[in-house]
Design a protein that fits this description.
Blueprint lengths: L20 H14 L6 H29 L27 H12 L2 E4 L7 E4 L2 H10 L7 H12 L8 H12 L4 H25 L9 H18 L5 H6 L8 H14 L6 H7 L2 H26 L9 H7 L10 H31 L4 H17 L11 H4 L10
Antiparallel strand pairs: 1-2
Bound molecules: protoporphyrin IX containing FE (HEM).
C-alpha cells in the first residue's frame, strides 16, 4: 500500500489520513488523473497495473463463482425453461412449491430435471421404472451424497436417513427387523388408531356449528403425536393445540418444525453456510432449535436407559434398546437419540405432508368426483368388518378391504 501512497509521485497532494486499502488506492488515482502532466508516468502505470490486477481478480472470482454455483440441468432430461446461472429458480414458486412441482410433472412427464443455483443437478421422478433402478437394480451407483449430507448433518448426523455406504448398511440391518408387518401392526397400528379416534372426536366438536380449521397444521400436530409415541412412548398433545388453534407453545413441536423449515430453506439459499459461520439470521435460530431437540430426545432416552424396563412399552426406543450392534453390544444413548430423530423426520414429516397434500387435493372442486369414489370405497370396506359401536374411525382391519386404487391427484 505504501508503494502507491502520495509520496511516490503525487507530491503536492494531501497525504491520506487513513491507512485502509480502499482510501490509499483511491486517493492517488484521483489526483494523478486530475493533473496527469505533473505526475510520474511510472507511478501512473503502476496504478493502472494495480487496477488491472484488481479487475483480473474480480473477473477470475466471477468465473469461479459462476462455474461453482451455477445451476446445472441433467443432460438429456426434459426441463422447465432455464436461464443461465439461475436455472429454473426465477420461474419457480417457492411458497407453493408442491403445486409448481406437480404442474411440471403434468408438463414434462414422469421425470424432469430441476436445476437451481448452488445445488447439484436433480432429477425429479415419479416413474416407477426409474425408482426401481435407483433403489434396487443399480442401488450401489446411487447415494445421497455430500450435498445432501452437508445440508442435513446438523439435524440427522450419521443417522439412517442421511448415511451412505457402510454406515447406512449397518443401520438398515438394525432397522429391518423393526419393519415387519407384525411390528407395524402391533406397534404403530394401535397408536394411529387411538390418535385418530381423538382427532375425529375433536373434529366432530368443531363441526356443529362448522369452524374453519387449518388442515396442514392439524396434520402436522396429529402426526407428531403419533410418531412421538411410536418413537419414545410420549404424547405431545399437538393435535388438540392445532384444533383449538392455540399458538404452538415453544415445546418440542415448535423447535422440530422450525428446525426443519430452516434446514429446508438451505436448498434455496446457497449462502446459508456463510450465515452459519457468522452465526446470524435463521442459522443462529437453528442452533437453538437443534440444541432443544437434541436435549429433549437425549433426556427421554437417558431416562429410559436408567430405568429398568419391564418390556411393556412397545415403542421404537424399546425395540432399538433390545437390538444389539455388530459387536453384540447395546447401542449407546447418543446413537439411540440420533436414530430416533432420524425416524421422527423420516416417518412424521413425510406422513404429515402426504396427509395435508391429499386433503388439499381432495378439497379442490375438480376432485369432487374422486372424493365421492373414495367415500364409496371406505363405506364398502366398513361393511366388510365388524364395526365397533360408536367408533368414528375406520378400523385397521378395514384397510385390507380398501383397494387404494384411486389416484387422488
Ligand atoms: C407418506 C409417507 C412416507 C413417504 C413418502 C416416505 C418416503 C421415503 C423415501 C423417499 C425414502 C428414501 C429416502 C432416501 O433414500 O433418500 C424413505 C426412507 C425412509 N423412511 Fe420413509 N416415507 C414415508 C413414511 C415413513 C414412515 C411412516 C416411516 C417410519 C415409521 C419411515 C421411515 C423411513 C426410514 C427409516 C427411511 C430410511 C431407510 C433407508 O434409508 O434405508 N418412512 N422414506
Amino acid at each position: 500500500m505504501s508503494l502507491i501512497g502520495p509520496d511516490r509521485g503525487c507530491k503536492d497532494s494531501q497525504p491520506p489520513t487513513s491507512r485502509f486499502a480502499v482510501s490509499s488506492i483511491h486517493y492517488p488515482v484521483e489526483l494523478c488523473v486530475k493533473f496527469p502532466g505533473r505526475k510520474d508516468k511510472n507511478h501512473l502505470l503502476l496504478i493502472m497495473d494495480l487496477w488491472l490486477l484488481v479487475f483480473g481478480v474480480i473477473c477470475v472470482s466471477l468465473v469461479f463463482f459462476y462455474f461453482k454455483f451455477r445451476a446445472v440441468a441433467i443432460a438429456g432430461a426434459k426441463s422447465p425453461p432455464t436461464v443461465p446461472f439461475f436455472g429454473v429458480a426465477l420461474g419457480m414458486e417457492v411458497s407453493t412449491y408442491f403445486e409448481w412441482e406437480s404442474a411440471q410433472f403434468a408438463k414434462y412427464g414422469k421425470s424432469w430435471s430441476l436445476s437451481l443455483p448452488a445445488s447439484p443437478p436433480t432429477l425429479n421422478t415419479i416413474d416407477p421404472v426409474v425408482i426401481k433402478t435407483i433403489l434396487q437394480d443399480e442401488f450401489n451407483n446411487f447415494e445421497k451424497g455430500e450435498p445432501f449430507d452437508v445440508v442435513f448433518r446438523d439435524l440427522l448426523g450419521d443417522g439412517i436417513f442421511n448415511a451412505d455406504g457402510e454406515k447406512w448398511r449397518k443401520q438398515r440391518k438394525a432397522a429391518s427387523h423393526l419393519f415387519t408387518y407384525r411390528v407395524l401392526r402391533e406397534t404403530m397400528g394401535p397408536v394411529f388408531s387411538s390418535h385418530l379416534q381423538t382427532l375425529v372426536e375433536l373434529l366432530f366438536l368443531k363441526a356443529h356449528p362448522p369452524v374453519p380449521i387449518a388442515a396442514q397444521r392439524l396434520m402436522f400436530g396429529f402426526t407428531l403425536d403419533c410418531f412421538s409415541q411410536i418413537a419414545f412412548g410420549v404424547t405431545l398433545n399437538e393435535t388438540e393445540a392445532a384444533i383449538e388453534n392455540t399458538s404452538q407453545s415453544e415445546g418440542f413441536g415448535f423447535h422440530f418444525d422450525r428446525a426443519q423449515e430452516i434446514i429446508a430453506w438451505r436448498f434455496f439459499a446457497p449462502y446459508w453456510s456463510i450465515l452459519k459461520k457468522l452465526n446470524i439470521g435463521g442459522e443462529r435460530q437453528l442452533k437453538g432449535h437443534l440444541k432443544f431437540i437434541r436435549a429433549f430426545c437425549e433426556n427421554l432416552v437417558r431416562q429410559r436407559c436408567l430405568t429398568e424396563e419391564n418390556g411393556e412399552k412397545r415403542d421404537l426406543l424399546q425395540l432399538f434398546r433390545e437390538a444389539k450392534d455388530e459387536n453384540n453390544q447395546n447401542y449407546t444413548p447418543e446413537w439411540l437419540t440420533t436414530m430416533l430423530i432420524n425416524f421422527l423426520v423420516a416417518g412424521r414429516d413425510t406422513t404429515a405432508c402426504l396427509l395435508s397434500w391429499a386433503l388439499w387435493r381432495m378439497a379442490l372442486p375438480e376432485n369432487a368426483g374422486l372424493l365421492h369414489k373414495l367415500r364409496g370405497e371406505i363405506d364398502h370396506a366398513m361393511l366388510q368388518v365388524e364395526v365397533i359401536e360408536d367408533a368414528h374411525v375406520v378400523p385397521f382391519s378395514a384397510l385390507e378391504h380398501i383397494p387404494l386404487s384411486y389416484q387422488v391427484c
